[in-house]
Structure formats: C-alpha cells, structure tokens
Amino acid sequence: MTANSTPRDTTGLLTDPYPTCAALREEGPVHRITGPDGNPAWLVTRYEDVRRALADPRLSLDKSNGLPGNYRGFSLPPALDANLLNMDPPDHTRVRRLVVKAFTAGRVEAMRAPVRRLADGLLDAMESVGRADLIADYAGPLPIAVICDLLGVPHSDRQDFLAWSDALITPDPNRPEQAKEAIGSMLRFYTGLIAAKREEPGDDLLSAVIAVRDDGEGGPGGTDRLSEDELTSLAFLLLFAGYENVVHLIGNSVSGLLDRPELLRALREKPDGIPAVIEEFARYDGSSPLSIRRFPLEDIEIGGVTVPAGETVLLSIASANRDPRHFEEPDHFNPHVVRSGHLAFGHGIHYCLGAPLARMEVEVALEALLSRFPGVRLDVSKEELRWRPSIRARGLISLPIAW
Hints:
With 403 residues, the chain is mainly α. It has one domain: CATH 1.10.630.10. The chain is built from 17 helices and ten strands. Helix 7 packs antiparallel against helix 9 and helix 13 crosses helix 15.
C-alpha cells in the first residue's frame, strides 16, 4: 500500500517528541513528513520495521543515491563528507576496519582510570562554587577531553571545537551563517591537525590512522589505503560523534535521576546499579531520536508501505524504543527490568562504533558525580529546563545543579 503523500506536520517531534511519536506509531508504521530543511522524508515508527531497516542493504547511506529535493541532512564539504555516515560497503567496511580496534572492550576498559581522573578534575573545579551548569561544566568538557586525548588533539584547540560543535548541533536561527562558519573552521582545524601529526606523529589514534593512509597495508595502493578526504572525514566524525552522543546521554541521565530521588539514593549506596540505569536511559530518553537518513536503492516496502527509490527514509529510534509491541510498559522507566534489543546505538553494520566507550564514559561520569556530590539537586524548576530544538539530537541546552 502507499501512505498519504501529503507531508505531515511533525513540529511535535521538536517540542514534545514522545507523545508525538506514540500518536504517529499507533496511526501507522510509516508517514510522509517534512524534514528539518523543509524537504519531504518518510518516517518509520515501529520497532520491528526500524530494526529491520537499520540492517537492510537496500537502504543506502550514500547521499548520491538520494533524489534532489529530498531531505539529506548536513551539507558538508567533500573533505568532511566522506565519512562512515555517508558510506555503504565495501568502502564502509574498509574504513571502519581501520578504527574498530580502538574501541574493543579491553581498550575501553584500559581508559576507565584516565577518564575518571578527567571527571574528578572537572568536579574539582566545580566544587568550590556550590552550583554549576552540568552541561557546560561537566557533561560537555568530559567527552571532548576523552576523544581529544584518544586522537591527540592539543588542549588549546578544545574550547574552539566545543563552540563549533554546538553551532552545528543547534544552529542559531538568528545567525544562519554560523553553521557554515563552523564547518569552515572545522575543516581548517582538521587539515592543520593532520599536517601536524604527519610532521610529528604521537602515540594516538589519529597518528596511527595517518600512517595507514600514507603507507597502506601491504604497501602503497594497499586495500586499506584511505583517500585524503576519507582521512579528514574520519577525524571529523570521531570527534563530532564522540562529543555529541555522550554529552546528551550524560545530561539526559542526570536529569532523569534528579527527577527520581529514590533511585538517586539507591545508586549512591550501590553504584554497581549504574550500568543498568544508563542502559535504560539510553532506551527511554536517548541522545539520538533518529538514525542517519537512508535512501532506497529500489522501490522498497516498509511496514506495508511502498517507499520509492531515492527518497529519504528516517528511522525513528525514539519511537521504536518505546513501542509497546516490543517492550512491556515502554513509557515507564524501570532499570530493574531487562529490555533486550533497544536500538539507541543502532543495529547491523552501522551499529555505533563508539558504543563501548560511550557507555563507559557515562558510567564514570555518574559514579564520580554521585560520589563527590551526594546531595546534588536541580537548581531550577523542572519546567525551566530547555531542550535543544532538534529532531536528530535529544539533549538539554543547560542543566543547572547545586549541592
């Protein structure tokens, strides 16, 4: 069958996403909507359809397979656009293989102590004041420091990167040129960083990837050799994604805990319950409401609806993770129930490369915060909290706390 071809009004996805998702999900599995850029897209809402589509090779991430006039997402220069979020196999397989070893469970666990030292240092700076903005003072700087240490980014550049990332995540409607300026600044930054690493390699992931790019496995022209654009784009994606997803999950988790004082007290007494709480927050109020857009390589049926080749498909992770067809009482937050199969980190070959690192960072962030400030509380009314106006990122603009 076909869905209504008139795009639906989905402003509720910005202002109050979960009731809007529930209404769309119950009305039908697939909806024609207007994307953030004003162009049409197809929104998939139910768990089984979303999970199946995430692993469907007929749904391409390569924007060259999309029709003109459909939603495409970020507009980036080629040197930043040749990243894993725009690739299908075999290029996706080739590039991902170069960095996957940096995110194995063993390597991530070895980073736990250094991440805790970073968290403690940020809390040291906050402690004497008695109040703070958790996002600006803790949830934001921590993942930036972690991923910058992993890639070997100098300390002097990290504050600039925060500003550029925020300009891309939540563009100022009164300054439409801001996002374009941020992209230009990022491109210059990555180009300069890669040149510096070539001149003076370090013991970091970016230096290792540069060596692979310049030498290639098996010598020049080896099968794992990267183009220069792929190298720059990979650095961009690791820094940007490593920041955006973690800062929002820390903020959303702390906000949710402050709204549940009994759970907060239980975690202070038994912090070994934190991993299960993080997993449930990832499902219940995760940082990525939508997967990266996809383009059918042929006319494809999703949930009984025919979507034409080349049109944009958006998979609603937020809706799927609260689908009562798969999860019992999905709108009830309950970390004591194992809800297997949530899609907060994706599914299939595009499953989030940094998921183990993200989980560890959020776990350390919560452990350190609750240990240092057992009396942490919200410093404004809940109604005053402001969420970023974005359908692709779910996160707080600020989270004022006191202790």
